[in-house]
Structures are given as structure tokens and as C-alpha cells.
Amino acid sequence: MAVLLFFSLVRRVYFQSQLERKAKYNFSPVLGGMILLGFLSPLMQTFGHSVLFLMMMSALVILTFIAGRNGLTDHGVLLPNLLTRLLDFQKIIKVNLQPVDVDQERNVIVATFVEKKSQRQHALVFEMSLNDLISFLQQKLPSEAQIEK
Predict the structure, then answer these.
(1) CB-based contact 67:78 (threshold 8 Å)
(2) How many domains does the chain have?
(3) What is the mean pLDDT of residues 13-31?
(4) At what angle do helices 51-66 and 28-40 cross, to 10 degrees?
(5) For the domain that residue 144 is a member of, what is the CATH number?
(6) Same domain (yes/no): 97, 42
(7) Do 6 and 68 sit in the same domain of this protein?
(8) How would you label 120-141 residue by residue, b for 16+ Cβ within 10 Å and e otherwise?
(9) Whole-angstrom distance, CA of residue 143 vs CA of residue 73
(10) Across the strands, what pairs with 32?
(11) What is the mean pLDDT of residues 57-61?
(12) Residues 146, 24: Cα–Cα separation, whole Å
């Protein structure tokens, strides 16, 4: 488990360094990680002297906070999961872009990416112009993918 968390942490840091379009911070992984840490905290008395356990807990705490940073890389969509997942652009069948009217000065867009195989939807929130996001996605997505506004 510690190796998996450490590998996920290294992978997350690498993909975050590759972000070309950053989404707004997502607090869901923080909440999920805090709940998981709450369940694991009673084990500190039993395994607290184990270096491996302490490394696992440290990696989980760090991963919990950095997992909320996600967005678009050159190869795919970095999703807000504790176990780092990159959704390849070639596996996306449809993107639904929904502008949100927050105020006159900010352009907020909710982008929902739909996977080809499972039809699973992943939503990210971007603070950028709709035209910039559309032009970026048109360059990266396969030709059969739909972009709906």
C-alpha cells in the first residue's frame, strides 16, 4: 500500500508539472482523504513505530492535498482522484462545456468529459474564456469526439 501511494504521489507531481490548462482546485479528494485518514488514525497506536506505516500516512496526507489540482495536459485530462489517473484524450467521446454566469469579470466553465467505453462522466471547472478552451480541446481531441456548448 505504501509503494502504491508513493508511486501515485510521484506520478501526480509529474502530471501536475505537465498541466497546460489548470482547472479550479477540487476539494473532493481532500474530503475523501481526510475521511480515510480518520479511519486509519487508530492504527497509529499499533503501527506508529513502523517507518513504512509512517511513510504511507505521510504520502497519503500529501497526496490528499495535491490531488485537488487537476486540468488538461498534452496527453489527457488529469482527474481529481487520490490514486492518480490521466484520462487519455483518445478515450473521450464527448465534452460538454457549460458556461456558468458568476459575474461579469470571470469566465467560469464546467467541462464534462465522457469516456468512450464506460460512458463515465468527469467534470472539471475552468476559469478561462470559452473560445480558448474550445480551441485547445479541438487540437487535442480525436476527430470523432463531440464538443457541445
Answers:
(1) no
(2) 2
(3) 90
(4) 160
(5) 3.30.720
(6) no
(7) yes
(8) eebebebeeebeebbeebeebb
(9) 18
(10) none
(11) 83
(12) 23
Task: List all residues 6 or more positions away from 34 whose beta carbon is below 8 Å from its beta carbon.
Answer: 64
Whether 91 and 70 share a structural domain: no
Task: Supply the range of the domain harboring residue 116.
Answer: 86-148
**Of 32, 57, 80, which one is at a domain's C-terminal end?**
80
Please indicate whether residue 1 or residue 126 has the higher confidence score (pLDDT): 126
Q: Are residues 102 and 73 in the same domain?
A: no
Q: What does residue 127 show for φ and ψ, rounded to 5 degrees?
A: -115, 85
Half-sphere exposure of 116 (CA within 13 A, CB side): 12
The size of the chain, in residues, is 149
Q: Residue 23 half-sphere exposure, CB side, CA atoms within 13 Å?
A: 24
What cell does 62 get?
Answer: 500529501
In this prediction, what percent of the chain has a pLDDT beyond 70?
A: 100
Residue with cell 490528499: 64
pLDDT value of residue 142? 93
- The stretch 137-143 carries a mean pLDDT of 94
As a whole number, mean pLDDT of residues 117-135 equals 93
Helix (H, G, I), strand (E, B) or coil at 124: strand
